[in-house]
Design brief:
α2 packs parallel to α5 (118-126). The chain contains eight helices and 20 strands. It has helices at residues 3-8, 21-36, 45-54, 82-91, 118-126, 200-203, 288-296, 308-311, and strands at residues 11-15, 40-43, 62-63, 73-80, 99-103, 113-114, 131-135, 138-143, 149-155, 158-163, 170-176, 179-186, 188-192, 216-221, 231-233, 239-243, 251-255, 259-263, 268-273, 278-282.
Length: 315
């Protein structure tokens, strides 16, 4: 079997939407590059319908599910911002494919590279010249007041319990490892992974957690309480948020801003580390500190460089 024949058996998912012209052009370019290299480009069915409406050349690209099972996807190339990358992680959740983000948006914190390096990224995917980094995900379960499981899902960034009505406050009690911690009225509670610590958690006043730190952040939103500070707990500890039955109205669970479920009074949301991480493809071993500075445009004027203690290995 030739090298080209081997590549023909390789299925690469391309995740993009048709809402922006530059993304459509980029998707067409990536599909053509994969074909030229002898690999098989694959699109999600909805993406293909949308893209083919403006680029007929994409109408005959194979679709995941109908033509190619998710288990056969080698890698997902994502053209977009963090929202598109989260969607890609959802698409390949039942497989093993890592996700490679090419930033077509603004901050793009999950993206590995910018659009100017897209051609090089595709080449490195073909050559399998990339590393894979595993990121903690969350397992989320909802029970009703009677204790029956009514919903299960997962999250890469965060699981958020929020009030469903703007004019009504949510009454909750927080539980850590089976023990009650505090009850209060609030707008909601954010439970975040290290990956999600720079997203909703960050906006809510939670801590930035380095990806190498295995931890879970719990941040109350606008709590009416003396003790309702952000918490950082261990990766094996479980968090539960109960919507008290005296709550006047319903809450809502959001996971990664993509999947939601209504929470009636008495509902219990349990969140803990998932057994299955999310796999991100990495082309450059950049320090997370550098990523923070670059993405948030942080001022570092005056830094004189590391000394022997901070730059070298620990004694």
């Amino acid at each position: 079997m030739t090298h080209t024949d081997e590549r023909a058996d390789r299925s690469i998912l391309v995740v993009a939407h048709a809402h922006r012209e530059d993304t459509v052009i980029a998707a067409e370019r990536v599909v053509e590059a994969l074909r030229a290299a002898g690999a098989r480009p694959v699109l999600a069915a909805d993406d293909r319908d949308e893209l083919a409406a403006v680029r007929p050349s994409l109408a005959h690209v194979a679709t995941m599910g109908d033509d190619v099972p998710v288990e056969d996807i080698e890698l997902a190339i994502v053209l977009g911002g963090d929202g598109t990358i989260l969607r890609a992680a959802e698409l390949v959740r039942d497989g093993t494919a890592p996700v490679l983000g090419i930033n077509m948006g603004h901050v793009g914190f999950l993206a590995e590279i910018e659009r100017d390096d897209m051609d090089d990224a595709v080449h490195r995917v073909i050559e399998r010249d990339y590393g894979v980094e595993e990121r903690m995900a969350l397992k989320v379960r909802v029970k009703d007041a009677g204790g029956s499981v009514i919903y299960e899902t997962w999250a890469l960034n965060e699981a958020t319990v929020e009030k469903a009505s703007r004019e009504r406050m949510l009454e909750v009690v927080i539980e850590i490892d089976g023990r009650p911690l505090s009850s209060f009225g609030c707008d909601g509670v954010v439970v975040s992974t290290p990956t999600g610590s720079t997203a909703y958690n960050f906006s809510a006043g939670g801590p930035v957690i380095w990806p190498t730190v295995q931890a879970i952040s719990v941040v109350p939103l606008s709590a009416h309480a003396l003790f309702a500070k952000p918490l950082v707990i261990g990766p094996e500890q479980a968090v539960a948020i109960e919507v008290l039955e005296r709550t006047n109205g319903v809450g809502i669970l959001w996971c990664d801003g993509r999947r939601s479920h209504d929470l009636p009074p008495g509902a219990r949301v349990s969140v803990r580390r998932s057994e299955r991480p999310v796999r991100l493809a990495r082309l450059h071993p950049a320090a997370f500190t550098d990523r923070l500075v670059r993405k948030f445009q942080l001022p570092v004027v005056g830094w004189r460089g590391p000394d022997a203690i901070t730059a070298g290995p620990l004694p």
